[in-house]
Amino acid sequence: MPTPRPASSRRQFLRVALLGSLAAANPLSALEARRRTGRSLLRPALNIYSFSDLLTLNKKEPGQGIDLFGICDFCARHNLEAMDMTGYFFPEYPQVPSEAFISRIKRHAHTQGVVINGTGVRNDFAVADRAVRATGVKLTKDWIEATARLGGSVIRVFAGPQSPFKDWRVAACGAARDEVERWMADDLRACAEHGQKFGVVVGVQNHGDFINSGPEHLRLLQRVDHPFCGALVDTGKYLTPDPYADIAMMVPYAVGWQVKETLGSDLKSPRADFKRLMKILADGGYRGFVPIETLPMGRKDYDPAAEVLAVLKGMREGIAAATT
């Protein structure tokens, strides 16, 4: 007699099935899942935004906080195999790093045995102003080339909006969601076409606001419809009753991750169940780096190193349980 599913697993299974049926009913749903060979392979990594306050301090006051080389050393000490290097923390951002700096950080990462997996930029494709969007496309294309020179294979981008806009509706000057989604897809496709030339995949993050759920995330990717554009899944930004179901839905389309310590990226939301989360990724057959990104969330006593290591411990325990 088969072992019955736990109630929470049954609910998640039913919701994933429902989300999948809604996606299948969508006329845009020709997007293919990523084809992966072999068993799931989950490799914990670091998104350097976890150290954002210290990195920002270092940019303002060199010698204070921590720099990119120190982040690389942290990864090496704790056997984090790779890092996603958010572009904001490079010395010249928004300009791309110099060839001399790229050479230095690549050599240091190689010496420490740490892979530079990718980068990320601050763009806004929700805004109605075409000039602002065009600036975001150029920024992304420039950083795609920098990512390739760094040895990375993915660049994280946003859908939008960004400051000073309160939400995407304000940024879009009242345009309908379908119209905004259309122009977003056009901009993302232009970036993906450039990424294909350099072997860099564009990962669209669910950053809240415009993308709050798996179906919203998938629909945008369906409109882009390009093999060099996929989901950068933020486990703390599917703002739905059952984020685990949204995460499970997006595993087949994921090109990268940000594993957060809570499900809503704030202290009021539940702590992530890393055992459950890693099982979802393993069951979905994901192979690759799974970066951790922790957040201060208003905590004056936030210690990024301690927070990252706590998440890392939970992830490693979850991976061991899910893959043995």
Tally of helical segments: 11
CATH architecture: Alpha-Beta Barrel
Which structural class fits the helix and strand makeup? alpha/beta
Radius of gyration: 19 Å
Strand order of the biggest β-sheet? 7-6-5-4-3-2-1-8
Domain tally = 1
Order of helices and strands: HEHHEHEHEHHEHEHEHEH
Low-confidence stretches: none
Distance between the termini: 23 Å
CATH homology superfamily name:
Divalent-metal-dependent TIM barrel enzymes
How would the global form be characterised? globular
Query: Helical residue percent?
Result: 40-55%
Mean pLDDT score:
93
Q: What composes the largest sheet?
A: 8 strands, parallel
Describe what you observe in this structure.
The model has no long low-confidence stretch (mean pLDDT 93). This protein has one domain (37-322): TIM Barrel (Alpha-Beta Barrel), CATH 3.20.20.150. It is 45% helix and 14% strand. The protein is an alpha/beta fold and 324 residues long. The longest helix is centred in the middle third of the chain and has 22 residues, at 177-198. Strands 7-6-5-4-3-2-1-8 form an eight-stranded parallel sheet.
